[in-house]
Amino acid sequence: MTAVPPPYTTRRAIEESDLAACFQVRKEVFVGEQNVPEEIEYDAYDPTAVHVLAVAADGSALGTGRLLHGADAAGKTGGDLTVGSLGRLAVTRQARGLGVGAALVRAIEDEAVLLGLAAVDLHAQTHALGFYERLGYVVYGPEFPDAGIPHRAMRRTIKPV
């Protein structure tokens, strides 16, 4: 019996073409679908973040996410430099329901481990809390707006300190 290849793979986005694909997915999902102003979707953290990309067998981009670390993440993690900040997780409409989002979260966590981080924080849109809870994230703190959308902070320990 031969193994069936997955309908997509995830990888760290390093090439310019991969980064362009990440930004295109974000534009489609956040700017196009959720009406986030384009001028706040892309920020000063993009150049130093670790970006991950999910691609279909034909090479088309299905989803993306990024990991902030070090000083870039400190403002989102309470100043703890052992915690990374997962953000900008987006899956194209046609790829939803295929497990792409969960695969991207795990790929970001793998990158966090490689960086020596102990935990990953994120700011989840409230409608997505259940998704992240199923992946082991725990809510903390009050609800807050980000780009006019309600969010909650969440954290998952990925490596014992």
UniProtKB/TrEMBL annotation:
Transmembrane segments: none annotated. Residues 9-159 form the N-acetyltransferase domain. GO terms for molecular function: acyltransferase activity, transferring groups other than amino-acyl groups. InterPro entries: Acyl_CoA_acyltransferase, Bact_Acetyltransf, GNAT_dom. Keywords: Acyltransferase, Transferase. Its EC number is 2.3.1.-. CDD domains: NAT_SF. This is GNAT family N-acetyltransferase. It comes from Streptomyces microflavus.
